[in-house]
Every structure is written in structure tokens, then in C-alpha cells.
Inverse folding.
């Protein structure tokens, strides 16, 4: 037994150092080099610039609360869409605070569209708190409000939503979805 | 449930079954130490590592020596991680200037990553510097996975060798698996992830001015390199707090599908490798069949529960699937499937918040882990866990027909059965023991976010995940306390090494036996009867102990949910 332990000392220490250099430094740094050289946009967060200003990311959601825009989903990341504090609500199915929040959000949604069925994703918090998407139903639900505030024809706003829908790959990988930032940019451009 | 959702589940399973043989053949080459095409480039690295460490890769080790070398290597790795974390404040690659995590958090994290658990009592983006993510955490993702596969190889040799005192060389196994399997796959995988939108940069943040003119700071970092091995090595420790639900870890439905496949692919391949090692690939397919049956059963329940949704929300006028804690790009099907895959396989990455699943949707992940992570399981750990159940299954079959049990040419005797029971009994003992203690102590009751039965489920999930070395969580819990960091750390350590050591002892004991060819009285371990028996033994021995605990947690929660009772 003692001999088993002493024979393990040098390999355990030296292999730890060698693997740390290979896997802990060389591997991630080499990939950083490859990523920055070959896919610089994606490697740096798929950021979108407009007029020299970074206005968002293709993949990460941002808060939209103004009546002029399509709203994003409820977010538990910090005070909402905090990119440094991703989080879901983690409320369980029988949590009173969950029912209270959904009730309030349903009432708010009904203010502009009374008596309609509210799409689930519009009044539930996403897993990350940074969900960039809405279901087509949740986007279409908001069309009358946005069209009214903007003074645009409902049909035109509806067409913007339909044009922004992304479909599942091969028909089964993923869900139909609408990137809210892309939709709202199209909305601004349609002015 | 939708047709589209079921196509996803069936195509997913089909792809894995198609990959089982090729991946298994590659693994078998490494098991035998044969030359691969990658040796041209990486052979010198392998030989260099041995030379500098004074290792003779051809030295054959007894099970005791194999175990001691494995344990000591893991101990040194754990100390390295602890040191890097505690020194985070003064080490480079820390653009946010993050301070060192506390002693108890560093201890918990070091144990967590060493044991392939990747339980995280912290939020990555606000706790770990880029150096800590790379040097303290990513290396464990490789080496805890490689250790698991090496241990599986050792057990395979126990079955395959005849009257032998040895079960292989730990260093050769770990080095070959790392260099010729994990590292090359991860390089390709990480490049795919970067191309799909996963960041890979040394910058820590990017500032955004949103359309509404609000400042948003996005956390970045070397995410893709860690993400690749996090999935492939069934580690599951996310770069960000919400893991694979974060758009930067898992930006598209395609990355999501690939992530799910990569959790399972090595586990599937190892079953084939086992069959090949013992000279009959049907033995491997039989084990895999039992796993796939349990996997599809769990998936059906979880997918049904999540698409049926929460009656409490239906009452409020919000029909349809449960979308609380889910991302739109994944939806109910891919979220439920991911949850089953990650808990079947000891991965612990999540793409949805399990805490917000419906009661039964959340029961499936807990039950998967409680079975001992043998439904495919962690890389290596899944197959050696399954083989412990196989030993017990032939023992039970032997009792029924009154003959000495045999499995793949080895007589199974009292010693192997006792050691298997010892290894398997660790799970209920620690999971239920620690849950019970924590459900009465004030320090334990500080954990849950939710009230009522769901709060108990949160404690039960925590220790189930720790002992099963899964690492996923009902994530509303406040685990970053001295009590929980300590308790969970101990639970993870016991859950890993108190199973491994008896398992290696079995490997040693089997290797020493002579080959017993199957005779007319042998119980066949390849057909449907065997698969059924194995599934039954896994459910009865692995699952039954936990039913009272599940009744107090998720089942009570379900009854409350359908009655509309809130807490």
C-alpha cells in the first residue's frame, strides 16, 4: 500500500501541471485565437452596431417596456434583462407568488385586448431572463396595441411580425419564434 | 404533445443508436491502447507526458494501485482548483476584478468539479474570473470525464481478463481518453458553437445601449471552449448562472440538439465498447436496451406533464404548455427532453428551470438521478453503475433457478454481490439521510425558495443531485451557505468515490477468476427476458427506497397543483 502511494506522487503532481497547461490554458486560448480570427462577430457576442453604437445582440434579449414597442417576456434576471445576472424565477407550480404575478400580467395584457386568450410565453418568466424571442402568437397579440400607439395600419404591423417569424429547422428542430429586437428594429424602420 | 415534438425525440434517439457502434469502436481502440490516426499528431504529446511524469504506460496495475493512483491524481487536481479559486483576486485574466470566492464556496466548487458533479452554489458571470473558468474548472471537465471512462475500462478488463492480477494502467487510460477522444472532439465542437453564436473571448463584458436607450451590460468570456467539454464530459457546470438556458451558451435550436446528443453519445458508445471487450457486442446492446427503455419512459412522462401545463395558470386564463422557466426557442418538447437527458446522464446542464417544471415534470429528473445515474449515465460512471446492477440482476436470477450466477463468462459470487450492494446502498443512505437532517435543522431550512411540498422537493433535489454527481438543481435554492456548501461537498465526495472503490475491488476480484463458458444452465444475458429483468432490478433496487420521499415532495405537490392549492 505504501509503495502504491509513493509511486503515485510524481505522476499525480506532474500530470496535473501538464494537463493544466494543456487543457486549462493552451486549449481555451487557442480556441479564442481561432474564434477571434474566423468568427469575430460571434466570438464577441454577436453584437449589432447602428450608427457607431452597439444597440444589442442577435442572440440575447433586451427589455422592451414602452407601449411603442413589442414587449419581451417577463424576466427574473436582476431588475429585468440584466446581462450580468441571468436567472429564472424558479417559482414552483404551486407558488402563490407565481399565480399573483401571472394574474397581474394577464390583467395588464387584457387592458389593451380585453377578453382574449393570453399566450403562455407572454405572461411567464423565461429560463434565462434574457430570452430574445416570443412565440408568433405572443407577438401577434401585441399588434393592435403597437399599431394604435404608432398610428400604423394593423395590417402593416401584422405583416412585419409575419416576416420576422423564424421556422424550425427541417420542421422539427426548434419552435416557431420571433426575435423581438429584430421585430422592433423593423418597426422603427417602417416609420 | 405535438407530432413535431415526438419526431424530435425519436430522431434524437435514432441518431444516437446510429452513432453507438462507430463511437464504441473508437473507444475500444483506446481501451486496447491501439494506434489511432490521431497518434501522428498527438503521439509525441502522449509520450512527452509519460516521460516527464516518470510513467511507464505498459506497467499493469493491480486494482489497489489503480485506485490509489486515481485517488491521488484527483486529490492533487482538487487542491489546484481550490488554490486557483482562493487566489483569484491576484491572478491574471480577471478583467472584472472579481474577489476570491469564500473558503466554503471554493471547497464546494473544487469537490464539485473533481467529482464530475458540477454543482454550482454560485452564479458564474458574477463570481468566476476568466482564468478560474479555464484553469480551475475546464480542466476538471476533461479529467473527471476521462477518469470516469478510465474506471469503466478497468471494470471491463475485470470481466475480460482471465486469472489476472491486474486491470490496466490508470495513467495510460486517462491520457489516451483525453488526448485521442475528448480534446479533438471538443476543438471541433467548440468551433461549431462559436460559429453558432457562443462567445469565445478574453473580454469579460460588452456594453449595449438598447433601443429604449437603457444601458445593458452583457457578460462574455471564453464560453465555447468550456461549453463543449461541459456537455461531452457530462459535467454540466455552466459558464453562466442559467447554464444552457443562456442564449450565449445555447443560442439556437440546433446547438440545443447537438448539446443533447453530446451528453449521451459517449455513454451510448461505451455500452458497445463493453460488449466488444467481453467478446459479444450483444451483451452491450442488451445493457443499452434497458437504458433506452428507461430513458423513453421518463421522456414520455416529462414531455406529457410539461405540455399538459399547470392547471393553476389555466385557471387564470393562460392555457397550454408550462412556459414558466422555459425559453421560446426550445419550447416544451426540447426542454422536457433536455431535462430527462441531463438527469439520466449525470450531466446536470439545464436549458430550462427544473424548479418551475410541473410537479410530475420535476419528479422525472429527481427519479432519474435516484436510480443511480444508470440510464446511460455519466461518461464511464453510467456503464459501471449499470454493470453493478447487472451483477445484482444475475444474482437474483441465480436465486430463482438455484444455480451459481454467471455474467459474461465470470462466476458472480458473494464478494461481488456484497460489494455491489455496498456501492448501490450509498445513494439512499446519503440522499435520504442528508435530506432528513436538513429538513429539521434551521440551517437546512434556510435553503428553499418555495413553500409547501415544493420546498421539500428543493431539499430532496439538492442532495439527490449531489450524491448522484449530477449537478443540476431546483435552482431557486440558496445553497451558498457554510452549512450547504459543506454538506453538499461531503455528499458529492461520497457519491463519487464510495462507489468507485468498491467497483474497482469488484474489477480486481473478477479479473482474478477463470473463464466460465456459458452452459445449458446459464441465464442468458442478451435477450428480452434479461433486459426486462435488468429494468425491473434497477427500478426496484434503485427506485423503491425513494418512493416515500417522492410522496412527500413532488407527488404531494402534484395533488396540490390539480386542486389549485397554493403555498
Amino acid at each position: 500500500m505504501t509503495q502504491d502511494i509513493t509511486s503515485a506522487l510524481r505522476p499525480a503532481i506532474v500530470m496535473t501541471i501538464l494537463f493544466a497547461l494543456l487543457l486549462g490554458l493552451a486549449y481555451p486560448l487557442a480556441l479564442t485565437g481561432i474564434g477571434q480570427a474566423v468568427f469575430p462577430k460571434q466570438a464577441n457576442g454577436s453584437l449589432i452596431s447602428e450608427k457607431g453604437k452597439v444597440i444589442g445582440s442577435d442572440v440575447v434579449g433586451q427589455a422592451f417596456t414602452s407601449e411603442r414597442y413589442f414587449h419581451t417576456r417577463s424576466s427574473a434576471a436582476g431588475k429585468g434583462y440584466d446581462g450580468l445576472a441571468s436567472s429564472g424565477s424558479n417559482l414552483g407550480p404551486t407558488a402563490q407568488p407565481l399565480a399573483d404575478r401571472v394574474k397581474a400580467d394577464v390583467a395588464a395584457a387584457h387592458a389593451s385586448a380585453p377578453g382574449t386568450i393570453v399566450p403562455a410565453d407572454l405572461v411567464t418568466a423565461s429560463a434565462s431572463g434574457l430570452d430574445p424571442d416570443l412565440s408568433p402568437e405572443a407577438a401577434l397579440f401585441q399588434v393592435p396595441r403597437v399599431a394604435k400607439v404608432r398610428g400604423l395600419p394593423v395590417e402593416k404591423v401584422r405583416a412585419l411580425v409575419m416576416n420576422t417569424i423564424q421556422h424550425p429547422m427541417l420542421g422539427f428542430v426548434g419552435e416557431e419564434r420571433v426575435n423581438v429586437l429584430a421585430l422592433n428594429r423593423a418597426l422603427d424602420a417602417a416609420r | 404533445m405535438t407530432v413535431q415534438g415526438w419526431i424530435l425525440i425519436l430522431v434524437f434517439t435514432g441518431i444516437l443508436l446510429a452513432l453507438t457502434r462507430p463511437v464504441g469502436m473508437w473507444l475500444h481502440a483506446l481501451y486496447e491502447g491501439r494506434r489511432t490516426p490521431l497518434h501522428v499528431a498527438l503521439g509525441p504529446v502522449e509520450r512527452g507526458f509519460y516521460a516527464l511524469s516518470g510513467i511507464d504506460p505498459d506497467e499493469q496495475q493491480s486494482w489497489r494501485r489503480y485506485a490509489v493512483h486515481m485517488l491521488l491524481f484527483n486529490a492533487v487536481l482538487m487542491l489546484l482548483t481550490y488554490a486557483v479559486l482562493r487566489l483569484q483576486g491576484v491572478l491574471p485574466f480577471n478583467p472584472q476584478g472579481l474577489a476570491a470566492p469564500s473558503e466554503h464556496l471554493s471547497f464546494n466548487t473544487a469537490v464539485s468539479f473533481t467529482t464530475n458533479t458540477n454543482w454550482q452554489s454560485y452564479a458564474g458571470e458574477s463570481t468566476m474570473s476568466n482564468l478560474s473558468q479555464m484553469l480551475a474548472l475546464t480542466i476538471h471537465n476533461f479529467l473527471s470525464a476521462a477518469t470516469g471512462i478510465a474506471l469503466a475500462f478497468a471494470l471491463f478488463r475485470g470481466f475480460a481478463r482471465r486469472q489476472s492480477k491486474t486491470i490496466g494502467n490508470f495513467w495510460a487510460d486517462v491520457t489516451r481518453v483525453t488526448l485521442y477522444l475528448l480534446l479533438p472532439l471538443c476543438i471541433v465542437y467548440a468551433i461549431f458553437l462559436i460559429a453558432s453564436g457562443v462567445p469565445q473571448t478574453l473580454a469579460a463584458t460588452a456594453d449595449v445601449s438598447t433601443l429604449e436607450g437603457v444601458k445593458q451590460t452583457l457578460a462574455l468570456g471564453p464560453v465555447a471552449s468550456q461549453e463543449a467539454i461541459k456537455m461531452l464530459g457530462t459535467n454540466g457546470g455552466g459558464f453562466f448562472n442559467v447554464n444552457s438556458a443562456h442564449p450565449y451558451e445555447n443560442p439556437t435550436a440546433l446547438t440545443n440538439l447537438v448539446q443533447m446528443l453530446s451528453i449521451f453519445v459517449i455513454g451510448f458508445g461505451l455500452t458497445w465498447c463493453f460488449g466488444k471487450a467481453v467478446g459479444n457486442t450483444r451483451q452491450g446492446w442488451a445493457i443499452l436496451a434497458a437504458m433506452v427503455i428507461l430513458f423513453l419512459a421518463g421522456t414520455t412522462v416529462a414531455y406529457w406533464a410539461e405540455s399538459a401545463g399547470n392547471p393553476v395558470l389555466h385557471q387564470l386564463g393562460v392555457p397550454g404548455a408550462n412556459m414558466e422557466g422555459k425559453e421560446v426557442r426550445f419550447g416544451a418538447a426540447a426542454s422536457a427532453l433536455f431535462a430527462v437527458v441531463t438527469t439520466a446522464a449525470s450531466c446536470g446542464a439545464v436549458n430550462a428551470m427544473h424548479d418551475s417544471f410541473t410537479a410530475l415534470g420535476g419528479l422525472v429528473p429527481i427519479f432519474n438521478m435516484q436510480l443511480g445515474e444508470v440510464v446511460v449515465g455519466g461518461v464511464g460512471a453510467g456503464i459501471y453503475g449499470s454493470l453493478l446492477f447487472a451483477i445484482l440482476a444475475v444474482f437474483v436470477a441465480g436465486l430463482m433457478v438455484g444455480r451459481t450466477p454467471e455474467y459474461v463468462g465470470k462466476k458472480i459470487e458473494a464478494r461481488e454481490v456484497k460489494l455491489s450492494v455496498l456501492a448501490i446502498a450509498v445513494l439512499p443512505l446519503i440522499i435520504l439521510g442528508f435530506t432528513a437532517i436538513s429538513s429539521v435543522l434551521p440551517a437546512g431550512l434556510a435553503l428553499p425558495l418555495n413553500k409547501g411540498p415544493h420546498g421539500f422537493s428543493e431539499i430532496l433535489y439538492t442532495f439527490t443531485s449531489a450524491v448522484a454527481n449530477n449537478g443540476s438543481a431546483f435552482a431557486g435554492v440558496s445553497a451558498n451557505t457554510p452549512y450547504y456548501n459543506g454538506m453538499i461537498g461531503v455528499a458529492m465526495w461520497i457519491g463519487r468515490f464510495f462507489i468507485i472503490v468498491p467497483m474497482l475491488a469488484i474489477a480486481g476480484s473478477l479479473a482474478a477468476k477463470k473463464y466460465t463458458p456459458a452452459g445449458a444452465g446459464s441465464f442468458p444475458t442478451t435477450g428480452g427476458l434479461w433486459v426486462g429483468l435488468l429494468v425491473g432490478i434497477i427500478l426496484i433496487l434503485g427506485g423503491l427506497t425513494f418512493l416515500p420521499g417522492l410522496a412527500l415532495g413532488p407527488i404531494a405537490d402534484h395533488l396540490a397543483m390539480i386542486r389549485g392549492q397554493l403555498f
